[in-house]
UniProtKB/TrEMBL annotation, chains A, B, C, D:
Listed SUPFAM superfamilies: Aldolase
Stored PANTHER family: 4-HYDROXY-2-OXOGLUTARATE ALDOLASE, MITOCHONDRIAL, DIHYDRODIPICOLINATE SYNTHASE
Binding positions (pyruvate): 217
Family: Belongs to the DapA family.
Organism annotation: Streptomonospora nanhaiensis
Keyword annotations of the record: Lyase
Pfam families, per database record: DHDPS
Protein name in the entry: 4-hydroxy-tetrahydrodipicolinate synthase
GO molecular function term, any single one: 4-hydroxy-tetrahydrodipicolinate synthase activity
Length: 316, 316, 316, 316
């Protein structure tokens, strides 16, 4: 049963799901189901599939739709689907298919060729037209990866022009002032409310919630911690929130490295018993023995402060 | 009947075909057939569909395959299909479909995130593996658009590693010395022969043939002129070749503008009676009235030196 | 005697001067003087020194000031000096020195890290403050080289904010519609008049004048042709203007290649007897024997239509 | 008294010094001296001035030389000077001036226009020639800021070609495997020893030392912590090193934000009583009240684990 469409009042944690593969490159549906159930048990308020770290470009159209549909069927929470594509034809057809399958909305990243403010707003206008007026969508604002810089004013312009735009996946860096600026626009009445969920691996989530973010949309390998952190912040338990965050920061920072981060994430999910395999489809970054040992050390140190990190070693 | 696979001995002119659309955005198969026949009548030695200027990203997978198949069925010459994609899954499935339909090979542009020599060679290694060892492919070397700079040594490395790499769509800028360097590699035995067909709108085709290029792969709106030019150059009629080229250069330069170039091309094809419509799918650059008048003037001036440019005005 | 400050009513041709060097890398003042006199004799209405193709970054501060001062002393026309720099301290000190020496204004290119509209306008605001309110300046809008894309609206904002901004070196590509848009802003009263001089090697100068440009600011090796062309256009002798332009286009296009273009320019200036040496300071692009022969052929062919290209070969 | 030239056996911590300014924009020599003395007292093994975060582009040539000379005269340890410049003329003259003043070497970052391996190695070859064979230099490898990606093989090639290249400021991200690769080159005899000091704000210093780095060259506002950390790691006190690092990570991560990071650094140095002013020259990023409060909280939390962070509030 699909969740209802995402709205601008969404809060909490939307987990960015990696796509599990078997070592021979097939989609590992057993692990996918286990991962989905784990997210539910962790208390996430939504799941995002086929994002940047979901290896979306390595999936054929039918595989992508099947994954989205499978997750949708298994959960009560809304499922957002990444539909970024080099052209609007592919974006339109993927959006239609996943919305049919019960997705709650789609996420759209800008192509890395955009430069001017007008190019960015025009892109989202065209994209919104391509997916259709009834599909709620998420702006993915990730300059580090996409090389597209959106000022708060540009985001406001996109929101104003497109009723379907209900959420921002905020991962600008630095980004704290951007959250304050957007919430300021809401307060001064120049922009309607936008759900702001933060990405960037969670690296600034301790302060992002304090600045007004509604939560997180990221794939850190302890989504259960993210949920707890956002709840602590919502209840105003500031010290406890920072203590929890700081305990995880060494690992979180390690996982947030570009390129190798997904391998860390899959490794920890394997150690947590959620994924059967760490496999990625080619081209894949892999972890060296040294890197594995570093992650093991980080988990071991984390376990002293958070029992969730007390894990058995991987059988080899 | 499909042509045989492209090989490293390919010569002449491979026309880059625009994709004709009707004003409501459907693929205009009538115009596509007329365009295909026009290419045949122009004496091209090959046709390339779904390239950068074929609006490939605006086509759904099935549309793309249908276009390639339709052109293949109608001609005797080899048809190359652009299969550049953000991921190898889409590249693989599109390649399989068009090769099944009788394509003679595929063309692969590098994603604009590649920087180092090793990243570029790794990309083509992975791409070659994705499409399969039996599919001949063309490297598209177009730094102006893709921001990826391939030195002659990098191209040599790609050729050495991948038996399927038989052709270079050369559109580096400046690029004349690159042709000389690659032909030098062949002479000194460090690289096997590569078919080099030049793009970049033909802006340096007068000298590219003299430097050793085998011809052109570009979409200039007078492919019949390109064919004649390459033949003149091949017969050593240098003065005649330059005279012909210089007559076309003012228009050719105008058409080679990024962004607006495709609109010019479709406009002239419409004026030549080959396309029924100038329509592009969104997002589309359009010609202002001033730009149309400029193209009209260029055609009028060209017509004094080349009768092929003597065209009736478009009925409005 | 310095010319008076540049104003927004400037017209004609501002020649972009290359910096002449001797083979051992010293500034070649004899050639510089001869070049300056040649510009005067060619009828230019201004000279620009220390631009992108003036090898400005290869000059020490004192050398740069000395070159600017030497040219200023020798001519009656205004001299614009390129002062683009990675920081405002260097821009301020170079501006102060050359304005003291009698320069008529300065030219400022944006650093290639700027992305958003606000970043661009902020940059010019800071730059204008750094050089001081009394120094007239030229915006250099050259996205191909600087990767900074300025919309007409951004240029209008810069003009509105900075009284010193009186001229645009227009070299966007494609750029014809931009000229029309800016002149439209003037007509609708939303922007004060701006002198628009076109660069980009002159590749579209035939139509740029017709769109409303005031002339050219570029370094093509036949500035005397540019002057004649702009005058023909100003007198409405359209056919003659196009005939002259088309005759030069094959060479002009060859010279306009990035990287190697300056070597072509210096080679032709040497063949014209204006520069004693083709030398560039390191890092320098040089002409291969094949490239020299190509330029020779282009000159020979041009000479049939323009006697100014009838040149003796270089003594070797 | 200047220290002796830097060599490939350099170890420990080279502090990247910010440049102190007074609120009216003058160089604040009182604070500069106090900062220099603080570095000495902290046990640094070197100081780097005029780096990326030393606001070097905002300094006139004479100011830059004066700052370098002042620091050199005050310390026993080697002083490295950033001489990155858009052209070799400025690099040469700044290098000559600071080496005369007793600098121990210079640091060179690549211009952000470089793409291919050959372009990068050619750049360092030309740079080494410009500064002269007797000047030891540091490669700054910071792709996040400079957009230039150097593979380990390219670094090896630069080291092989240039005897003066003795040190790498390592700040690739991710970068741990790069350290391992370079140390591997040394072990297999394919590269001579290189001093590797890590930057990137110190964000991975816990593991970088374990991978074989010789220490840090970064500007974190607790250089005394960096010195202690590198010493703990050198003595094999792994747990203590990680404990110290983890305690600082929340603040260190906050300071490592692009753009705003320097403001954080100057603010903390002001709170530590080392700088009299937080002022930057324009263009400057400033801290909002919210950001100040965040830094204050991070310091307060840090103070529970490291007494060095127990600071009085700034008088206002």
């Amino acid at each position: 049963m699909p969740g209802s469409p995402i709205t601008s009042s969404a809060r909490g944690v939307f987990a960015i799901a990696p796509t599990p593969f078997t070592p021979d490159g097939a989609v590992d549906t057993t692990s996918l189901d286990r991962l989905t159930d784990f997210y539910t048990a962790s208390g996430v308020t939504g799941i995002t599939v086929l994002g940047q770290l979901g290896e979306a470009p390595k999936l054929a159209h039918d595989e992508a739709v099947a994954i989205a549909a499978r997750v949708v069927r298994r959960v009560q929470v809304p499922v957002v689907v990444g539909v970024s594509a080099p052209g609007f034809a592919a974006m339109r057809s993927l959006t239609a298919a996943v919305m049919d399958a019960g997705a709650a909305g789609v996420m759209i990243a800008p192509p890395n060729t955009l430069r001017t403010d007008d190019q960015i707003t025009a892109y989202y206008r065209n994209a919104a037209q391509a997916i259709g007026p009834d599909v709620p969508f998420v702006i993915q604002d990730y300059p580090l990866t996409f090389s597209v810089v959106m000022t708060p004013k540009v985001i406001r312009a996109i929101v104003a022009e497109n009723p379907g735009c209900v959420m921002l996946k905020h991962e600008d860096w630095p980004g704290l002032e951007k959250i304050s600026a957007l919430r300021g626009f809401e307060r001064d009445g120049s922009m309607r409310r936008l759900s702001i969920l933060c990405g960037n691996g969670g690296l600034f989530l301790d302060f992002e919630t304090e600045r007004g973010a509604d939560g997180a949309m990221t794939g850190y390998c302890f989504p259960d911690m993210l949920v707890e952190l956002v709840e602590l912040a919502a209840r105003g338990e500031r010290e406890a929130a920072h203590d929890l965050f700081d305990a995880h920061l060494p690992l979180l920072r390690y996982e947030q490295q570009p390129g190798v981060g997904l391998a860390v994430r899959k490794y920890v999910f394997a150690r947590r018993g959620i994924l059967d395999h760490e496999a990625q489809r080619a081209p894949a970054a892999t972890l060296s023995a040294a890197a594995r040992a570093e992650v093991d050390l980080l988990l071991e140190r984390l376990a002293r402060r958070d029992g969730r990190a007390r894990l058995s070693p991987l059988a080899r």
